[in-house]
Amino acid sequence: MEKSSKCSKLLPYHIIAAAASGDVEAINEVLKHYEGYIAALSTRKLYDECGNPHYCVDETLRRRLETKLITKILAFEVA
Fold this sequence. Notes:
single chain; alpha+beta; two-stranded antiparallel ribbon; 3 helices; elongated; Helix-turn-helix domain-containing protein; HTH_dom_conjug_TS-like
């Protein structure tokens, strides 16, 4: 039986530390890691003129969430 590894889904410490210190590439890796989650949080149900529902990503909300994440990354203190 293969053991399910949650550790492979975590960001490596060196990426977190680099992102917290302002490394742009590391910040982009963190954003890429969370892009699916952010997209899921920003998905909205919209209706067309016939009343049919459609799901799409609210780009404004997605950008706001990304900005909030970047702000928190830069404020994060690595021990």
